[in-house]
Structure formats: structure tokens, C-alpha cells
Amino acid sequence: MLAAMNRRAFLALGGLPLGAALAHADTRRNDAAVVGTLILLGPFDLSVVRRAEVRAIMTVVADLVVADDTLRARIVAEVPRLRERYLDHLRRLSETVDLAGWLDVGHIAAVLQAATDALYGAATTRVLVVHAIMRRLA
Asked: Among the residues of the chain, which ranges form H helices?
């Protein structure tokens, strides 16, 4: 992920704590692809920090199913806002995740669905968690 960032953005993040820097760096991905009724948001990468050290990297790939054309266009225009909201919820989730266990994809989907419902109303979209993995660091 850091290789994809340009040098200026990386240097601008130098004053932030590592977890905040990585989560903030991920918001630079402000584009989304639309395939039919599906909005592809791309990956969300977060560091899992325990006792001031990065213990794992969590990657979640989530997409949205939106049947309404008008709402889909609105969401695509507001992808940076949606990604920021998702990252905020995933960051809070990363603070409580069990490093010895597996990620609970159902819980991740429910958290992201609640965040989406708060922005766009209940029953207007459906969150699909395509991929969720936690890579533990030695």
C-alpha cells in the first residue's frame, strides 16, 4: 500500500501515528468502479495496533449492491465520504479484533451495513464483504 502512495503524500503523513497514517493513506483511493448494480469500492487496509506496535494488517474488500440508479450515482459521487466512514468503523473494529482468532465476516458486514444505512437509509443498499483477511506480523 505504501508503494502506491506518492512521496509527497507519504511525507505529509509523517507526523501521524502509524495506525492513523495507514488508515488515512487508504482514503486516497477515491475512485469506484460500477458494474451493473454493483459499486466496487476496492480494498480497505488497516493496521492492527496493540501496545503501540503494529501486530497485524487487516484488509477488507467490500462492495455495494444498489438497485436505484439515482442513489447509485449519488453514492459514486460520495465515495470519499463513504470510504472515510467505512475506515472509521473498521478502525474501531480493528481495536477489538482477537489477534489469535479469525475475522468474523458476518460481523464486519453488519458493521459496514449499519454505517451505510446511517448515510443512505435502511434497505436502500446491500453491503457485500468479498474478502477479509488479517496478516499477523512477527
From this structure: 7-12, 18-26, 69-77, 79-94, 105-120
* Cell numbers representing residue 85 in the block: 466512514
Determine the structural domain holding residue 49 and report its residue range. 2-136
Backbone CA torsion sign across 81, 36, 59, 106: positive
Per-residue CA distances from 132 to 18, 64, 100, 113, 123 (Å): 21, 15, 15, 15, 23
d(CA 28, CA 126): 24
pTM greater than the 0.85 cutoff: no
CB-facing half-sphere around the CA of 95: CA atoms within 13 A: 9
| pLDDT tens by residue, 15-32 | 444 444 444 434 445 678
Query: How many separate domains does the chain show?
Result: 1
57 strand-pairing partners: 47, 135
Return the closest-CA partner of residue 62 out of 49, 47, 79.
79
Q: 105-120 vs 69-77: helix axis angle to the nearest 10?
A: 100
Q: Quick one: pLDDT band at residue 112, thresholds 50, 70, 90?
A: very high
